[in-house]
């Protein structure tokens, strides 16, 4: 006696914006688990509980879906870091501002671990997605530069010099985040302390030049 395959659960109707968000969230998980090349649109459709043509209708292609996932992560990271800086206020000491931004980055990584894994797959993702991944770094650099430029302690520091320090900060945060993948016991607070204690001496010396 043979048994038939279990029928797919009926698709629940929901507004397009909610469905797109659901697809992006699940696609992010599947891409992170399997890698871009090994993931198929059928994999994602089955996990979401929709038809494959629906995902093509919304995103056009697997590359388009990946690009949308990365764009979503970029927006979420910007909101998180801007909220952290807003919370400490414009008149906070530079060290407090610096620590708040670094802490927000690692908190975001912990809350969106699959998104971070996705951004580390540059060698495997489609060509059109690579510039989007780099745009996340550029976004963080620009936001950090804008915040540092407003700090009274850094008034008068040449833009080129400050930009160089910002790139060091962004690079350090990303490398420590990658290291934490192999060291999951390292908390976000501990990672923040590593970056801040390593870089604050140089940033503090820079502030004295302003």
From TrEMBL:
The keyword Transcription applies. This is AcrR family transcriptional regulator. InterPro entries: DesT_TetR_C, DNA-bd_HTH_TetR-type_CS, Homeodomain-like_sf, HTH-type_TetR-like_transc_reg, HTH_TetR, Tet_transcr_reg_TetR-rel_C_sf. It comes from Pedococcus badiiscoriae. The keyword Oxidoreductase does not apply. GO terms for biological process: negative regulation of DNA-templated transcription. Keywords: DNA-binding, Transcription, Transcription regulation. One of its GO terms (molecular function) is DNA-binding transcription factor activity. It comes from the Bacteria. Residues 17-77 form the HTH tetR-type domain. Residues 40-59 bind DNA.
